[in-house]
Amino acid sequence: MEKGKVYLVGAGPGDPKLITVRGLEALKRSDVVVFDRLAGPQLLNHAKPDAERIYVGKLPDRHTMKQEDINQLLVDLALQGKTVIRLKGGDPTVFGRVGEEADLLQKNGIIYEIIPGITSAIAVPAYAGIPVTHRDWASSFSVITGHESPDKLDHSIYWDKVTNATGTLVFLMGVAKIAYISEQLIKHGRSPETPVALVQWGTRAEQKTVVGTLSDIDERVKAANLKPPAVIIVGDVVRQRETLSWVEKKPLFGQRILITRARSQASDLLAKIDDLGGEAYEFPVIETKLPEQAEQLQAIERALSQAEAYDWIMLTSVNGVEYFFHWLDHYEVDVRRFHKAKFAAVGPKTAEALRARGIRADLMPESFIAEGLLDSLKDKISPNQLALLPRGDLARETLSKELRAQGVQAVEIDVYQTVMSVPKDLWLPEMLANGEIHVITFTSSSTVINLLEALRQLGVRNPAEALQNIEIACIGPITAKTAEENGLTVTVVPDKYTIDALVEALVDRRRMTKGD
Ligand code: SAH
Q1: Domain range holding 150?
Q2: What's the CA-to-centroid distance between 162 and ligand 1, angstroms?
């Protein structure tokens, strides 16, 4: 069998977007992903759906896999002919033991690539508003491990040389040793007044910074209960934070927001949250698929075969538009055959999806639930007209009922079906329990029902209770009602039922709960 290949890749410091383009490409094409805690679980969404995911970090019931075993694992997988990616936090060559992994691969004649990453040593300070060099204050910096036990630290770090060798000193893995490190630096000639910053979980929602001086940083770290992982920055560059702190100023900073809608529909919401400084966490509990049953397919084919007859095509979602056009193509129906039809679109996104296909909606109701469409239709539609309603299988029947009541002939077709999905995410239950998810967004009733069921399947015994201290944001009153009926306390419902309004409402809620 031909041997596989191993990519040794830096995943960046935590924010899943801080991976390199080359690293992302390797991730997308690999058959197996070997990863640990510092390479955020969300990055794995980019892996092939059927890629094997192997976690080699710590779990509640298990210690971290030994380095030798990881080295061997990579070799074994490659010998099975697989393309493997070993994802590591930050840069793989900075305290990442990539040398040992590469060494064993080399010995076994396996091809590998080392793809650098953005190291936390530089990126984490930057996210706290501390560039590691400064024209006036520091023209050099060192990156030092703070990991070793004090006697070993004395052997492997030449404090007399290191202390004053560069303007800025960056320590990784040093939180537990902060007292010892400060003491050594003072002893070897740094002023006790030297500014120091510790940044915990930089680039992630938990990012937290403590600033002090060499003489008091130890107490401050204890008082703030700062825990690893954190980067320690020593030197005058720390002062820049007073003016340059930028991440913390974003309106959704510190908020990890669960997105439950289908991945194919989530991009807009993701981008907006990201832009406002929140950390979107994808956990899609629904996915849309093509219908499979013969009757459904026949119904679509039949409905499209009389394209010329329709007076109205009424679309109620972006998915509806996309799947509708899928079927036109599938049954070879040229869109010009609907020459008589006017198009109605519920909501601006639906209209936009139509516009992208060269069709400008004739009617775009003000309000965004299906009932709104009826109001705006009343004087535009006459009895005996024929309307086509391409929709999802879970769509409510209000629209067609009302149309029929007005004498309109409504032909409904299920152009797509919505099915439940349970993402393979072992972390979510633990994150919920640890308060690491701050907000959950629901964009339809099925996302509510399915999330609760997905959590049950992941071993959460009482899902509604597990979500009690989390902000629950629903796109509209119908979704909110479903959430309340299922034991959730809804705290955010925008007055317009759009993604934009939902995000705005999240920002308002955050302002309110922060008290500013
Ligand atoms: N190869 C990694 C470093 C591995 S050593 C890199 O280049 O970043 C692990 C240490 O990195 C942690 O103990 C901590 O000091 C630091 N670290 C990594 N990610 C971090 C983050 N998001 N926030 C703060 N420190 C981080």
Answers
A1: 122-249
A2: 20
